[in-house]
Design goal:
The complex is a heterodimer of chains A (249) and B (388). Chain A is α/β, with parallel strands linked by helices and 249 residues long. Chain A contains nine helices and twelve strands. Chain A has one domain: P-loop containing nucleotide triphosphate hydrolases (Rossmann fold, 3-Layer(aba) Sandwich). Chain A is 38% helix and 29% strand. A ten-stranded mixed beta sheet of chain B has the order 2-1-5-7-9-11-13-15-17-19, covered by helices on one side. In chain B, strands 3-4-6-8-10-12-14-16-18 form a nine-stranded mixed beta sheet, with helices on one face. Chain B contains four helices and 19 strands. By secondary structure, chain B is mainly beta. In chain B, helix 3 runs antiparallel to helix 4. The C terminus of chain B is likely disordered. Chain B is 13% helix and 44% strand. The chains are: A alpha/beta (249), B mainly beta (388). At the A-B interface, helix 2, strand 7 and helix 3 of A face helix 2 and helix 3 of B.
Amino acid sequence: MLSINNLHARVEDKPILKGVTLEVPAGEVHAIMGPNGAGKSTLSYVLSGRGGYEVTEGSASLNGEDLLELEPNERAAKGVFLSFQYPLEIPGVPALTFIRTAVNAQRRARGEDEIAAPAFLKLAKEKAASLKIDFEMLKRGLNVGFSGGEKKRMEIFQMAMLSPKFLILDETDSGLDIDALKIVSEGVNALRSPERGMLVITHYQRLLDYIKPDRVHVLAAGRIVASGGPELALQLEAEGYDKYVGAAA
Amino acid sequence: MSLSTAIENSDLPSRRHEDWRWTDLRGLIRTVPPVSPVFFDVIKSSGPFEGQANAELIIANGRQNWWPGKDAETVEFFEHDAPDNPYDRASLPMAAIAADHAIEPRASIIQFNGDDAASVRFVSATDGTSHHARLGVVVKAGVSAVLLESHEGRGDRYLANTLIEIFLEEGAKLERIVLADDAAEAVAVTTAIVKVAAGATFNQTVLTGGARRQRIETHVAHPGAHAQVRLDGIYLLNAQRHADQTTVVTHGGVDGVTTQLTKGMVADQARGVFQGRIIVAEGADQTDARMGHHALILSDRAEIDAKPELLIFADDVSCAHGNTIGALDEEAVFYARQRGIPELEARAMLTQAFVGEVVERIEHDGAREIAAAWVAKQLGRSEEGGAE
């Protein structure tokens, strides 16, 4: 599924990723943990194609297809979904309009027919109900005036509507209280399937109590310095990142 | 003056006029083009506000040549001897030219005697010629009216100059929607002189895609006296188009309200001009005036010139203006692209949302929908939110 090999990337002249190698097979959830400044968010942005990041070496592919050559929207159409740490507010574009535009753009890019309005609305109502999102909220400007928890639920809602092949969750737990965390996690878990891979980026172990990873990787100073099972996350929670920060430097 | 008196290039405003410094006509038009020919075929086509008004007046190439409307009692059309030109060449050069050189010797008048909507279509179906027209609009006391005004370029390189004089009697209300779809190489100026009586409401929204040079100018004599004025605008310009929205509101008495919101976008080498002036005369206390102009520049070679002015000679007033010019939020563009929306579509969607606030302020339901569809079309989007 997702295959990252010796990935180097920099912002302006500052190298951030210094040789990341990672395989996430279909059906698995991998967590990336690490201290602040390790390059966790950079990794998510490089994979999704945000401007301002220059890949200087290495590769990243999804199901054998080179991601780094594609525009961000083309990557999305291939199935890459990034759940933002800080979802944007888009005044004047109702959430439903935004999501329908996105769904149809992806369908067009894949050579599929656009979704008809009744089918779209039916699906939106179902998914909104399962995430406890008030349907009226979807008629307002996307994320405008939403709380942190509502914004994250809206990210999961978009995920559910777009049904991507590969999810990248960037610090999805930040700013969430425990109730919101449960709802969001349930939403993510509902999307787990043998065909879908996930990369869960988080600073704290807490999220992994709810979204159980198959593998945990430690990213420090731009490299993966340790990998293991779920127990690695518990160990990090207990011991902190100190020994990895030292080792990577 | 009569029609035979030729207009000279030197009659046109130039950049030496302070109020025309960004919309220089004299430098552009070396020789004023000959008078436009009669054009009859316009009745075969429909205008952008089709179906929204019972009564329709068409002024094609400066000639009032058809009013196929049902001429309901609520809306009356007639001709009136044009009064002498009251406009000063120095302060209102194009209005003065229109008054002096209107092709029709008598002015067309639309009078609202009861609540209704009327559409007036200024059609320019000609190439390389010029025409000047003069229209009067009267809204009788207590009547609520809607004027759906379109400027339709069916030819190119024309010079169209229109003078509209609007009179709102006491307690009257007029919503004027102007949709200006001029040709790329056209020069078009529309000047509205609006006189508002006590307790009247004048609401205006101008939507324009510009022209080679285009100016839509509105002067409002505001009596205070619980009268309310709203002057809004949207300009969406690409290629080498130019659009100038100039407004002057003079508050002459106590207790008047004015709100203004203009939003625009310029791409390519386009140029947007906003000049908003609110004058609060001595003694016009309790005036409440707010002006906002906000624009997006989407290209390094595009230009926006904005001049918001508040000239306040009274003590007890509440006046404010805001003026911002910037680029689209690149974070939002990336967010939309990450969801699969191609870059151009994402930019168009965000621009549409940016100006949508002005569309929402249009009260007339049909006109609001037409305005929203016009914005979408102008940005290359379908109304459903997908690409065309």
